[in-house]
Design brief:
mainly beta; 4-stranded antiparallel beta sheet; globular
Length: 117
């Protein structure tokens, strides 16, 4: 089983930055990729960014390209989401996702990000 713990959420003003972190722990898992999704009140969960563990290829939603950056620490099984120039529309609960070898999906419990205008 894999456990994911997110941190780094909070309340900021528009234009400010936050960095989210997610640490994966557990036994007997190989990571194919990790990423972030978000869910705003009354909306469906949406993809934000992901990174392939081997090679580090990154993918972003159009709404965050140029503002957010995803990175990883392979040894520590950590993934980060640097969020710059935040907008009120970025307000949501952010969830860490891990895709393990074998296409197993795991989710964190989420961390709240609130951006005031």
């Amino acid at each position: 089983q894999v456990q994911l713990v997110e941190s780094g959420g909070g309340l900021v003003q528009a234009g400010e930055s936050l960095r989210l972190s997610c640490e994966a722990s557990g036994r007997n898992f190989g990571i194919y990729g990790m990423g972030w999704f978000r869910q705003a009140p009354g909306k469906e969960r949406e993809f934000v960014a992901r990174i392939r563990w081997s090679g580090g290829t990154t993918y972003y939603a159009d709404s965050v390209k140029g503002r957010f950056n995803i990175s990883r620490h392979r040894v520590k099984n950590l993934v980060y989401l640097q969020m710059n120039n935040l907008e009120p529309e970025d307000t949501a609960d952010y969830y860490c996702n891990l895709v393990a070898v074998g296409d197993r999906n795991f989710w964190g419990k989420g961390t709240q990000v609130t951006v005031s205008s």
